[in-house]
Amino acid sequence: MSSSRRLSRREFFKLAGAVGGGSLLATTGALAQGTSGSAAPTPGPQQVVTRAFGKTGVQVSMLSAGGMFDITTNQLVLKQALQFGVTYWDTADCYNGGKSEQGIGQFFEKYPETRKKVFLVTKSDARDPDGISKLLDQSLNRLKTDYIDLYFIHGVSKIKELTPETKAWAEKAKASGKIKFFGFSTHSNMEELMQAAAKMGWIDGIMMTYNFRIMHSDAMKTAVDRCVQAGIGLTAMKTQGGGSVKTETETELRMAGRFLQQGFTDKQAKLRAVWENPNIASICSQMPNTTILTSNVAAALNQTKLSSEDWLLFDRYAKETACGYCAGCAGICGSAPDLPIQDVMRNLMYYHSYGDCERARAWFAQLPYDTRRNLAMADYSAVERRCPQGMAIGEMMRSAGRILV
Asked: Catalytic annotation on 95?
């Protein structure tokens, strides 16, 4: 990690406390533009520090701006992100029907000098080389750029999706200058995929689900170690581990109260838990407004380590609420034919934990009609017995059929 002055307690409270009223945003916006008259210029906001991204030789901001929203109507977030040093920007061909990529392209077109400051990531839903090429060209056009820093195959769940043809395509795209680095994102079977990728020798980066619930499992620790040894850059996503504390248990209340007494929210604490692993280059967080951006930046700037008691509370909370969190082990759920349990679990996560009901319903609607109808009638007893989280899968699938229509 690059060096950075540690925030004093007073500075951190000032930064975090400004989130609600937006005063920090107004101040830093003015400071970044300088002042008029005889007054001396005031320094701009502190910058989020950087970490090495695997063996690429590139340093990336430890906080990444996730672009799963309509950026065409929210350019201020991108400008503010740059002022805070959040220069790792993530998007995909499918986000908001292309409006995410278009919004970033709109920004680069207006401020062309900013392109060289940004580590730009986008993704392809295609798997065949011709399809990937078509989507890459579409992304380059939308993003108003002639290269992508890191190009992902999106949502990989099985290593067989990355074929020798995929490798040949990546090498050709790099040689042409259209991409600099190549990798994949994954929401399921993360540990298995990471270990397999470490053996392949041509994967530069991986974005995977990674949070306080699963980061200390033996399988995940081994997967991270293997990737580090292979020089693969790692980006964590889904770092909230199922959403915010809902104050339903004594442990939840104690955890939320303890963090607030220390001057940060439970959401900020969950980010800091992930950053304590120096092998995680960056956290990708969806920040559709400047309030969330500022809150996350505040968490990134505070380099105080979590205490042993903090970690004990996280561990206790994770165990008490395990039955409500899908850990992404789709190899078990995948044993149920024609039932996309992992996909529906992800829809439910966006609905319940993120409150993004519109997105959850839109994704659910993409499932074939017969598949959605069969969710209510299927027998889930076998996969429930095998689920390491002890989830009531059948009940959750039936609820999806009711609330996501």
From this structure: yes
